[in-house]
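Before relying on records like the one below, remember that each one covers exactly one chain. Contacts with other chains, cofactors or solvent are not represented anywhere in the record.
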Amino acid sequence: MRPLIATYLRPKTMKRPTLNFVTLLSLLSSASSQAIAQAPAEVEIEVEATPPSAPAPEVAVAPPAPSREELDALRAQLGTLEQRLAESEARQAEALRSEQRARVEAESARATAEQRTLRERVAKLGVTLSGYVQAQYGQSQLSQDQLLQGGAPLNQDRFAIRRGRLRLAGRWKYARADFELDASTTRGPTASVRRAAVGVLLPNREANALPYLTLQLGLTEIPVGLELQQGQDEILFLERTTGSLAFFSGPIDTGVKLEGAYGPFRAQLAVMNGVPLDDRAGGPSGIDPTRAPDYLGRLGFEVLPLDFLRIAGGASFLTGKGFHAGSDATKPVLQWDDSNADGVINAGELVAVAGRGAIPSESFRHWAVGVDLDFDFRTKLGWTRLYGELLLATNLDRALYVADPISQGGDVRQLNWYVAAIQDLTEWGFVGLRYDVYDPNSDLVDNRRGQSIPADASLRTISPLVGARWEGFGRLTFQYDVIDDKLARDTRGVPTDVKNNQWTLRAQGQF
């Protein structure tokens, strides 16, 4: 057994044993004797000292588990805190939105005030600025991916800006002025003047009454019938009737016009060039080739017998001169007629064509008379309008089947009439239907089997339309035109209908 002398140190908390000095010496002596006897060579004494023991660690006592009631209370408290946090964030977001809204409203109010101030300043000058844009898409059965002789395209299926108008109107007590610009892509991108007139007037002191007299000079509306005098932004049908377009390529002409109004009576008299400015921008120049002007006018009435009924009508006339263009002088020429198409000059294929002198131009008389009638009455759905017009003319077709009695050997009579109805569907919508007939030559004859028989060249068009509008801002209109004519021939050579129906969708915005 290995000798061991150990010293025991105990914690202070334990009771230490009592040893006296004699007892300790005796224990040491006996232990040394035994160690020497067992280890004669070398004696190794190991003394292991037990280090002072570290303080005992404190043991953490786990708290008792919470009860179900406490958990429920904590959950309720947590939900309340989350709700308060969400409400606080919502209030902050709403406050931020309110601040932004207030800032925008303040800026808008400031801009509106500035605009109102500008309008008031302009209004004090008696000048107003307005305008509108008509953008549309249309399709026609006549459209082809081909070109006419000369390069004009046959395609009519396309988007277009029909009209883009900008107006300046000055209204003063005894004077007025109008100026209107137009931009269009109907015949390519073009811009032109559509109205430019100055005038003087004798005002009527009654509220909203027309002036007694108005005298205008410049480019202004042609005072014939109803269609020509309706504003292009006010008329609901997308285009004027076929006959109106044939007689007047545009609703305006340059001249002097006198208008009068007294009670229910209306009168218009005008002296104009007689060359209407084409409503489709990019058309003819409108320079009058004749010295003689056109004299035209309308005598009519307008009454309001009831609050929900309006009746208007009148009779129109036009007289003036048309123009037949002559031809220039020509030189004698030698003409080759390759009759056998062999590309070689053969005997008899060279022909001498004699020169000729110039043929002078000539003028001819044209005239027209017409009547029109308009009924407007209000129903539960809105306003209902029934109106129509009839016009008899001679040699007046200047745009569609150009009437030329000199080259045709006699006067050419025309007839144009139409009836139309428009029904409001509350203030937001409307529907309409128009039927118009245009006969470009009432004396037309057709040769069949060597016989001359009367022929009908009339064009009949049925035009239903439907639309929606936002008063003061614009409207959207769809119109379909069913066109019946006898401009084609069947396999037997008998006149038959040409497939030329078309439809148009137009959006109009105004300011």
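DSSP finds four helices and 22 strands in the chain.
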